[in-house]
Each structure stands twice: as structure tokens, then as C-alpha cells.
Amino acid sequence: MEQNELRQQAAERIAKEEFDIDLHIYKKDDNDTHIDFVLESKYGYIGGGASGSKTAIRKYERMYRDVYQYYGVTKDDIEHRTKRYEDLIRTLARR
Questions:
Q1: Do residues 65 and 92 make contact, with C-beta atoms less than 8 angstroms apart?
Q2: Cα–Cα dist 12/8, whole Å
Q3: Which of helix, strand or coil describes residue 31?
Q4: pLDDT tens digits, residue range 63-86?
């Protein structure tokens, strides 16, 4: 996580004209549980991870599916079977 934070800080220092992204990192820490989401809305990246108890990991997986469903896919994504569409299908197929 420390390395991720350093990378984000370095990315934020790059001028928008050179590297135009809309990156957001959301974190939740509670005792031995850590959950983080990484969202980049311009290029459609959604990622993250969880560590800790099995309950926390299941909670993260439910939230991850919900985030993917919220961002959805376009009709064009479905018709052309884009990477975005395939990622959504993989995510929804997870337990």
C-alpha cells in the first residue's frame, strides 16, 4: 500500500496535459481488515483488494460487484464484446 501511495503521489505531480486521468483510491481500515478500491473513471479502470477475515473479503467482493454494476456497460460494449463488458461478466460471475 505504501508503494501504491507513492505511485499515486508521483502520478498527481504530472501535468494533466501529459497524463490526463481521473484516479481515486478509497481505503477502509478496521483492526486487522484492510479494503481498498481504485477507480479511474476516464479509462474505466476498477480494481482494489482486501485482506483480513473471510467476512471482510466477502464484503469487499460484494462491494466490488456493486461498483461494477453501478458503472455498467454501454449497449456498444455489449454488442462489440469489449474488454469492459468481459470484465463486468467476470466480476459478476465471481462468488
A1: yes
A2: 6
A3: coil
A4: 887 877 777 678 888 889 888 788
| Contact assessment for residue 7 and residue 21, using Cβ atoms and an 8 Å cutoff | no
Q: Which residues of 62-79 are buried (b: 16+ CB within 10 A; e: fewer)?
A: ebbbeebeeeebeeebee
The residue type found at 55 is T
User: What's at 67, amino acid-wise?
Assistant: V
For 13-59, the pLDDT digits (tens) are 888 788 777 878 888 888 888 888 888 877 778 888 888 888 888 88
How far lies 76's CA from each of 25, 44, 53, 90, in Å? Answer: 28, 15, 39, 18
Alpha carbons 6 and 16: distance in angstroms, whole number: 18
The pLDDT value recorded for residue 94 is 67
Judged on CB neighbours under 10 Å (0-12, 13-18, 19+), 18 is exposed
* Local structure of 48: helix, strand or coil: strand
